[in-house]
Amino acid sequence: MVDTADTERDRPLEFRSVPLGEIETARSRHMWTRSAVEVAESGNLVVTGEWDGTVTARDADSLEARWTVEHPDHAVGIASLEGGSSDDGDETIVVAGRGESGTIAAYDAATGDRRWRYDTVEDLGEAVKDTVFYLPYVVALESGADGRLYAAARRYERDGEIRRWHSTVYAFAADGSVRWTAETDASPIALDLDADGERLAVGYNRCMGDHDTGLVVLEAASGDPLWSWDPGTEGDRRVGDVSFDGESIAVSSHGDKRGYLLGPGGAERWRVDLAVETELEDETLYAYPNHAYADDGRVAFVTGNTYAVESRETERRHPNEHRIAAFDADGALLWDDEVRGFVHGLAADGGRLVAPCAQNFRVRDPDTHAVRWFDLESGASATERLDGIATAAAVEGETVAAIEEPVAYHDEGETRGEYALRVGSLE
Fold first, then answer.
1. Contact 212, 228 (CB under 8 A)
2. What is the model's pLDDT at position 84?
3. DSSP string spanning 364-400?
4. What's the rounded Cα separation, in Å, for the pair 280 and 284?
5. Distance CA 72, CA 99 (A)
6. Contacts of 413 by beta carbon, 8 Å cutoff, 6+ apart
7. Domain Pyrrolo-quinoline quinone repeat, which positions (predicted)?
8. What is the pTM (predicted TM-score) of this model?
9. Selection from 77, 11, 28, 9 nearest residue 403 by Cα
10. Do 116 and 92 meet the contact criterion of CB atoms below 8 Å apart?
């Protein structure tokens, strides 16, 4: 692959910032999702979710707080949607939790008043071990029309060599009532709703039980299955992300480390190698394609960390790790570029992509800490470098927001960065 070259590559976004308090410093390896951010009200409101459960809405220009609430769990996901009750058309902020209750709660965007709450622990069951990986976890939120909300939650447990997932996909009405649920013994990782609001794509990352399919497309109104697809690979790794574009769905495959574009019914339109197993001297290396985004006949995929087939420890790097690559409707490469560090979540608005880049623990280079923006059509980029690591991002209109977390590499004695909200303009 060939890097794009553009005069805007290092144009700074000139972020404004506000501190978020204290959080445990990240180390060399990337940590689990601990923060969330959302841009709402057409770019005028920025909402942050913190590991201690604090949720704060701020004016996007002044960064002054409008309201603050305490979510029952770690606040690790945020979405905004129009309407929050059957007789109210105002915007609603929905927060996803990771914790004892696995709470999904909806808050009035103007006041912070809670409109409704749902505890997924009632469906998933309680954690059987007091560690973060066993807690009920709302992994994805997707907003629909008329205040509808879709969510995916999961819980993990292990008994000796036996590993199990308990998961539920939900459809909520505007008042928080449950319209339908879909339960499986696989681990969901991503949701996407088509532009018409008629089909909901659910990506499953780990399939080690009766559910053995990486992608399931449901009828959004009823939850009834329409069709399914799987990369057909060995092992329990299946899908990393899903994204609708009209009748097509882009899928990043953890099974074979490729990117796919599927048509109606799961018909394969094309597939591309992203970070497939590659021989490098005496090792076989690969990287997971963690993110996919499709819009207007173009598809972008983002890859993650390097791993070795025989061991998760390696000093080498896969040639396509930590990269973003965009393809046209026929699967031809349009452009590709480095993201340089691990991307927890890819934010997008139309043809704009924002990648919050955390550490590259193989090389431990602080220059990888940044928020990077790309144009889906041309690949033109801009960069806002951070002292700490960028772990979450959101974009709407001209407003981009990101969360910075502090980091200390294990072979250095220095803590870099702080826990802070960064907000800038893409104009």
1. no
2. 54
3. --GGG-EEEEEETTT--EEEEE-SSEEEEEEEETTEE
4. 6
5. 8
6. none
7. 52-229, 265-404
8. 0.95
9. 77
10. no
- Measure the CA dihedral 4/255/218/184, to 10°: -140
Return the C-alpha torsion angle 384, 2, 323, 387, nearest 10: -30
Q: How far is CA 321 from the centre of its chain?
A: 18
Alpha-carbon span 194 to 372, nearest angstrom: 26
Q: In what order do the strands lie in the sheet with 225-229?
A: 187-193, 199-206, 215-219, 225-229
pLDDT of 85 strictly over 80: no
Q: Which two tokens stand for residue 321?
A: 């790790």
In one-letter notation, the amino acid at residue 90 is D
Question: How far apart are the C-alpha atoms of 23 and 420, rounded to whole Å?
Answer: 10
What 313-317 contacts at long range (C-beta under 8 Å, 24+ apart), as own/partner pairs, is 314/283, 314/285, 314/362, 315/362, 316/280, 316/281, 316/283, 316/285, 317/285, 317/362, 317/363
Residue 422: inside a domain, yes or no?
no
Q: Model confidence over 61-82: pLDDT tens digits?
A: 999 999 999 999 999 999 999 8
| Residue 178, domain CATH | 2.40.128.630
Question: Is 320 within a domain?
Answer: no
Domain that holds residue 105: 39-184
Q: What is the pLDDT of residues 135-149, one digit of tens each?
A: 999 999 999 988 999
In a domain, 402, yes or no: no
| Residue 121 lies inside a defined structural domain of this protein | yes
Give residue 4's pLDDT. Answer: 43
Residue with the two structure tokens 């009823």: 222
Q: How far is CA 291 from CA 18, 192, 251, in A?
A: 28, 12, 8
Per-residue pLDDT reduced to its tens digit, 266-290: 999 999 999 999 999 889 999 999 9
CA 294 – CA 329 distance, rounded (Å): 10
How many CB atoms neighbour CB 379 within 10 A? 21
